């Protein structure tokens, strides 16, 4: 326990600054060696005080403030909970789990014969109030007795439908979070908007859930872990729900169309013995690093309603449940150095070199740092102790320096004055610094990208060959490849007749690639493979893309007001290159494209019209040779939308051999599953 007095109101900016530091120190100690300078309640009070000050002084919010980081608890609100939203007590190993179970069984006076074991989702607790089957209100946990109304987020949360299967009145409790894919997308949107990113998926979800006036929308995910009828509801259905074992409550929740962990690889199970519980704990822990969302433990609950009712609650947590905590995915380590690299588009990106630290099953040595503004905003220094986050698929990132651990030995991070790749100047007019030579700085990388398998697919054009062509002065960009003559190629060292003819044939094939691939080959900043396909499908021709202004570009799904002008500027920068490609006879249209307004009926006739399709596992039969990009292109030619993750919006899953969690998830959601052969038959004319 701590003797820190409750902090409910902070007098001024200095007190606020101290409170933020105190909270950071407490978190540092907790994540560093598991000890904490504050107990949970004191920490909660402290953060609530910080949040209250920030609400009153929005202009003074410190970037290091923990308010964005704390699940629900940081945010106070004025919507009273019908039933308090409590915490869970923790255990940290098998022995402590056994002690907890033994004391629970002593209290009950009988053994527990049915345990529910499920993941502890690392997000924010919310309660979703359904009235007559309709989603009426979303409320955060707040301080547990009252939370904040975040109903504005309705419609942006995957797994939380607007309507349940039955017209019931019930509160569904669960966790709102960002999957790794949602997090990456949210960071990209924020980066494009103001040059900053989110520290980790949890704080991104917290900020997103509360945000009302952001110019961009980020998607969230919900997983339910409980259902509560209103305490005054004495209807037969309510009484029945209260009497069901937890596992059956969860099956009912899923049947209502709400996402539960059952659709993941770590869904809830019922264990009969403590050994089985421990076995499942270990299974879930082993799967953690591969999950597309964060978990910070495993929750073990008495499955039977009678056991829960008898065990009851302490002041802060149920006695019938416990959180088996897994090691933190945030740790403190040292920032040893910052490396600067110029990417293929000329963007100069810093990368943090860390004292190696084990996080979520792997050793982390590098972390992303985004840009100079980001480094300055965080006030990072070399030698700083920094909080590093890594979980699942998420790229390791530095959250914040721990200022109180400074020794005085820290040094400023040296910011490059010239391009680290070529030594030329740096264009600092944008948040993302760029070599003044742009993509010319990293010509080999940018040409090699254009020739890559998912772009122009020019076989036989390895990096050393590109270097040879550049050194011989035969090319200056990838458009020049299409002007190379047989004699020029034969004149190169290690270039025989056969390789020359093969390469020339590869260039000819590359000229016939669809616009989506040609566009992707350009390497326009902010657009990857799927965005290039979307742009090409939207406009149909390079001419139409080039004629589009920022507003017209914004009509493409996923391009917002920040990215659109970048695309327009990039196309202007690439004008000469595109002209050369056109002159060389490179295809500048998307096969099968028809203007959206001219052929709505035709589009509706396509076999996958209006469908969102996901591909998983190994393809076979006529699709065996197709890469994922080619499969996605096929889906889009056939009128569908290719997506990489299964959700309630998915219309079809193409599942080949060794399909894993996506298949399980699709099964759980009742998504139509077809094998590659069936799918090939469906889209045959488009293969
Ligand atoms: S049950 C009465 N189940 O963990 C408390 N909670 O540390 C019932 N959480 O505030 C909570 N996954 O937000 C429960 N499968 C799960 C959970 C879970 C994550 C969160 C929840 C709670 C916090 C407690």
What's the SSE blueprint?
Blueprint: H1 13-33, H2 40-56, E1 79-80, E2 90-91, H3 94-108, E3 115-121, E4 124-131, E5 134-140, E6 146-147, E7 157-158, E8 170-177, H4 180-194, H5 201-210, E9 220-228, H6 236-243, H7 246-255, E10 269-271, H8 274-287, E11 295-302, H9 305-311, E12 321-325, E13 330-342, E14 348-359, E15 362-368, H10 372-378, E16 381-382, E17 385-389, E18 397-401, E19 411-412, E20 426-427, E21 434-435, H11 443-451, H12 463-471, H13 486-490, H14 497-511, H15 515-522, H16 529-539, H17 542-547, H18 550-553, H19 563-573, H20 575-584, H21 600-605, E22 612-616, H22 628-637, E23 641-643, E24 652-655, H23 661-669, E25 672-674, H24 676-682
Parallel strand pairs: 2-12, 7-9, 22-23, 22-24, 24-25
Antiparallel strand pairs: 1-6, 3-10, 3-11, 4-5, 4-8, 8-9, 11-12, 13-14, 13-17, 14-15, 16-19, 17-18, 20-21
The structure holds 2-(butylsulfanyl)adenosine.
CATH superfamily of the largest domain: DNA ligase/mRNA capping enzyme
User: Which class do the helix and strand fractions yield?
Assistant: alpha+beta
Strand percentage lies at 15-25%
Helix content: 25-40%
Cα separation of the termini: 66 Å
Number of helices: 24
Question: So what's the overall shape?
Answer: globular
What's the level 1 CATH class of the largest domain? Alpha Beta
Strand order of the largest sheet: 2-12-11-3-10
Please outline the major beta sheet.
5 strands, mixed
Instruction: Output mean pLDDT.
Output: 88
CATH topology of the largest domain: D-amino Acid Aminotransferase, Chain A, domain 1
Number of structural units classed as domains: 6
Radius of gyration: 28 Å
Low-confidence stretches: 1-8, 69-75
């Amino acid at each position: 326990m701590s003797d820190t007095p409750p902090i409910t109101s902070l007098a001024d900016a200095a007190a606020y600054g101290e409170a933020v530091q105190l909270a950071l120190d407490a978190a540092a100690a907790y994540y560093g060696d598991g000890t904490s300078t504050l107990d949970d309640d004191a920490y909660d009070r402290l953060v609530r005080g910080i949040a209250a000050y920030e609400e009153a002084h929005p202009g003074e919010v410190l970037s290091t403030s923990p308010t964005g980081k704390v699940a629900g608890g940081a945010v106070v609100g004025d919507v009273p909970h019908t039933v308090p939203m409590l915490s869970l007590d923790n255990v940290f190993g098998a022995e402590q789990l056994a002690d907890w179970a033994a004391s629970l069984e002593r209290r009950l006076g009988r053994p527990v014969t049915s345990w529910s074991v499920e993941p502890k989702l690392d997000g924010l607790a919310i309660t979703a109030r359904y009235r007559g089957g309709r989603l009426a209100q979303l409320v955060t946990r707040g301080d547990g007795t009252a939370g904040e109304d975040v109903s504005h987020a309705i419609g942006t949360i995957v797994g939380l439908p607007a309507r349940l299967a039955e017209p019931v009145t019930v509160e569904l409790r669960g966790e709102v979070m960002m999957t790794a894919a949602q997090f990456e997308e949210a960071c990209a949107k924020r980066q494009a908007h103001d040059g900053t990113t989110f520290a980790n998926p949890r704080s991104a979800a917290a900020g997103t859930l509360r945000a009302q006036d952001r110019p961009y929308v980020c998607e969230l995910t919900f997983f339910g872990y409980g259902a509560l009828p209103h305490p005054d509801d004495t209807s037969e259905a309510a009484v029945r729900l209260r009497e069901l074992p937890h596992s059956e409550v969860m099956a009912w929740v899923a049947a209502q169309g709400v996402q539960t962990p059952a659709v993941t690889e770590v869904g809830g199970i019922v264990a009969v013995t403590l050994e089985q519980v421990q076995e499942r704990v270990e299974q879930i822990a082993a799967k953690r690093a591969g999950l597309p969302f964060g978990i910070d433990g495993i929750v073990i609950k008495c499955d039977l309603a009678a056991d829960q009712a008898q065990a009851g609650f302490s002041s802060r947590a149920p006695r019938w449940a416990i959180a088996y905590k897994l090691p933190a995915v945030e740790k403190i380590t040292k920032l040893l150095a910052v490396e600067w690299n110029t990417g293929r588009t000329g963007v100069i990106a810093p990368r943090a070199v860390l004292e190696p630290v084990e996080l979520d099953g792997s050793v982390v040595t590098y972390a992303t740092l985004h840009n100079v503004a980001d480094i300055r905003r965080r006030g990072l220094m070399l030698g700083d102790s920094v909080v590093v986050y890594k979980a699942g698929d998420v790229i390791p990132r530095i959250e914040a320096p721990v200022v109180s651990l400074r020794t005085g030995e820290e040094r400023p991070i040296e910011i490059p004055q010239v391009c680290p790749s070529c030594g030329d100047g740096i264009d600092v007019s944008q948040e993302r610094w760029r070599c003044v030579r742009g993509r010319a700085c990293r010509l080999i990388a940018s040409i090699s990208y254009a020739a890559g398998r998912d772009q122009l697919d020019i076989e036989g054009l390895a990096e050393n060959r590109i270097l040879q062509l550049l050194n011989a002065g035969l090319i200056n960009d990838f458009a020049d490849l299409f002007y190379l003559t047989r004699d020029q190629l034969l004149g190169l060292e290690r270039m025989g007749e056969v390789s020359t003819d093969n390469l020339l044939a590869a260039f000819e094939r590359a000229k016939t690639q669809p616009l989506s691939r040609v566009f992707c080959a350009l390497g326009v900043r902010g657009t990857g493979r799927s965005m290039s396909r979307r742009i090409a499908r939207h406009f149909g021709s390079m001419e139409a893309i080039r004629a589009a202004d920022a507003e017209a570009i914004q009509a493409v799904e996923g391009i917002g007001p920040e990215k659109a002008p970048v695309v327009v500027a990039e196309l202007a920068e690439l004008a000469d290159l595109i002209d050369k490609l056109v002159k060389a006879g490179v295809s500048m249209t998307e096969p099968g494209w028809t203007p959206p307004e001219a052929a709505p009926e035709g589009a509706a006739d396509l076999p996958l019209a209006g469908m969102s399709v996901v591909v998983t596992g190994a393809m076979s039969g006529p699709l065996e040779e197709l890469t994922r990009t080619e499969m996605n292109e096929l889906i889009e030619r056939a009128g569908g939308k290719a997506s990489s993750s299964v959700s309630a919006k998915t219309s079809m899953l193409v599942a080949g051999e060794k399909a894993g969690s996506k298949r399980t998830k699709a099964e759980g959601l009742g998504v139509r599953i077809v094998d590659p052969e069936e799918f090939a038959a469906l889209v045959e004319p488009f293969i």
